[in-house]
Amino acid sequence: MKSVFLTTFGCQMNKADSELSLGLLLERGYRMARDEATADVILFNTCSVRQHAEDRVYSRLSQLKAHKARRPGLVIGVLGCMAQKEGEEIFRRYPHVDMVCGTRMFDKLPELLERLRYNGGYLLAVSDEKVLSYPRQRPPRENPYQAFVTVMRGCDNYCSYCIVPYVRGSEISRPVKEIVAEAESLVHEGCKEIILLGQNINTYGKNLEKHTDLASLLRAVSKIKGLERIRFVTSHPNDMTRNVLEAMAELPKVCKHLHMPAQSGSDRILERMERGHTAQHYLELVELARKQVPDIAIASDFIVGFPGETEEDFEDTVRLMETARFQNAYIFKYSPRPGTKAAELPDNVPVEVKKERNQRLLDVQSRISLEENMKRIGQVVEVLVEGTSKSNKRRLTGRTSHNQIVVFDPPQVDSDLRGKSVKIKVAEVTSLTLFGQLIT
Ligand code: SAH
Ligand code: SF4
Ligand code: F3S
Fold first, then answer.
1. Which of 78, 137, 204, 236 sits in a 20 to 30 Å window from 97, CA-based?
2. What is the 3-state secondary structure (H, E, C) of the chain?
């Protein structure tokens, strides 16, 4: 029996793809290796979104060279976004890699590995036309009460800085029935929370034969008995509809949490990013969301140091952040991606300035997050328990509907509350975490 060790880089879609890949391999009799040293097959599911993400994979691949020399039978495979983007270039730079398998091919992974076993040599599989099929089996998850379900693949948006449409291909939605069936089987196995995944999930259903939309999908998944929570990511401001906000307000299982990246607060930069919205439009959407879904938590992404970003542009971003008052925000330093439109513009904001803007924006957001969290002191929040807290194994942790992490003491030392919903009275907060007491 061959053993496999897979490391995942990148976003939640990659984590979902890794689960599907492992599921397929387990179905074919592979087992999961404890570590790289003992694995027969080492796989990396990779990310290309920023140079830093690629560098991390390249450094891991370099480390494996000596390992492979000692164990020639070892199979090393690169999967996912970098595989799609770099193709055979990976073999040229790292001749000890055996297989490069793109983002639309990993349902073929068992066959590819089989072929390698018999034929040896290099195997490149990066066709991008294919519609992927989804296997039934999944590997055991660290948190069995929560699972990703991919509802669509690819992206047609072509924001000027972004590599995703190039590495993930054009948008394809899965039929509602198929998604509901997968979610049902997960719930049957004990899962309580489903996270629906799409790069631009608000356009879900657009290209399906039987036209549908995200709001209808949320309604269909909501009907599953035993399912407690539904989340969905990521929302693009241009495609966000009143319909979806109505469904969020009306369906109790849908978490009151919206991840809707703004990217910048400067209209000049937003235009260069080809986002298709202005800062004003974005802020109006935030206002509408808060009106339609009271107590909704909104999270955002920002890129600092985009080509041509001046101090004034950056100030506009700070202003948007101050006005929108996000629950949390992810901030990235612009990284030119060869092949994208923005990569043709000079990357003219110095690294130091990018770093400094990154830190300033982080500081503003941390302050806002703390101020918002302080308003929760004394409130009772519902928490789906995930396990023990990383920093203190005697305490338990879980998440609220708003996707906030809550840490609390168990009623007894060994009480197993995993997968249960409990009520916690918030007593203390930081910018990232709520602490409180269990209410029985
Ligand atoms: N589909 C999602 C996520 C895309 S990638 C969305 O549209 O929101 C996640 C985040 O990475 C983006 O929101 C953006 O903020 C950031 N990002 C994408 N390309 C980048 C680049 N070239 N440099 C720096 N950050 C980037
Ligand atoms: Fe990239 Fe834009 Fe598509 Fe998001 S919507 S994946 S940022 S191109
Ligand atoms: Fe990275 Fe690919 Fe996701 S580029 S962010 S792993 S879609």
1. 137
2. CCEEEEEECCCHHHHHHHHHHHHHHHHCCCEECCCHHHCCEEEEEECCCCHHHHHHHHHHHHHHHHHHHHCCCCEEEEEEHHHHHHCCHHHHHCCCCCEEECCCCHHHHHHHHHHHHHHCCCEEECCCCCCCCCCCCCCCCCCCCEEEEECEECCCCCCCCCCHHHHHCCCEECCHHHHHHHHHHHHHCCCCEEEEECCCHHHCCCCCCCCCCHHHHHHHHHCCCCCCEEEEECCCHHHCCHHHHHHHHHCCCECCEEECCCECCCHHHHHHCCCCCCHHHHHHHHHHHHHHCCCCEEEEEEEECCCCCCHHHHHHHHHHHHHHCCCEEEEEECCCCCCCCHHHCCCCCCHHHHHHHHHHHHHHHHHHHHHHHHCCCCCEEEEEEEEECCCCCCCEEEECCCCCEEEECCCCCCCCCCCCEEEEEEEEECCCEEEEEEEC
